[in-house]
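Case study 2.
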Amino acid sequence: MNTRLLEGPGRCLESLHARFIVDLVLGIENPRQHRLAPQQQQFRERLMNEILAQTQLRPWSVAGLFSDNPAMRLGLAEKLASQFDPGHLALDRMSHYLRLLQARSQGSPELRQQYVLISEQFSQRAEYKLRALTQRGLMVESGIHSDEVFTRWHAGQYDGWSLAGRCFIVLEELRWGAFGDAWRLANVEVRTLLKDSLRSMASQYLGEGIGAAKETRHFYHQWLASPTSVGLMDHKEMLAWLGSRCDAVLQPVCWSVTQTWQPVALGMPRLCSATRLVDAMIEELFVDEV
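Prediction:
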């Protein structure tokens, strides 16, 4: 019997709920836009059921009605966003997408109005987060968040994933949280400092994980090999879901690290050091999104 995801590989991931809520909203017009493989579809359904049970929203899952119903899908996203703290990136991305939907929607006036109202709600929450983060200091908040995530890495909380998978998890945790918010909102000078610090820390931890200097090159399969552990498939499927938006051409390293059930992308270096892996994943993930 499979381990419960939120008690297993998902228990230490703060970005998981934000990612799930954003996927709900971005899939309003085309719920099957990701073209996930069957095993990933099954994983997403398992995750959905666990989150709904966790939040006592299980009636929403009856017959999977919300998956093809824009109003129900949006209503569920709104309810989940009220129970969790999606972060500035998630709120801004959802608000922007709902404004686009409202402008081009052929749906009922009631649905278009729902788009407007919830978009404004998400936008206001994002602005509040921006002000609070700026008042507390971008460098301070990003430093606190970075320390928390790297402490979890050092404590072994991400050990269910491959070495490169752990690095991807860390970068995603940072990207969706206060560190990523600070990076997107900062000026060029501060942004450079944050990225340089992230490169240094992640390369150090990744090199220590394989037991070599961070500039030492290894065959890619040493970085991608999953550890033998209880719930191995849950960890692999969660990593694949978290990286499901990665593109094999535009993000070849992140795609190869997360979609290990597929052949590695052509752009994935066959020999690579910790530093090279980290540099590639940061450049693929930390882009101008907002």
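Residues 138-285 form one domain.
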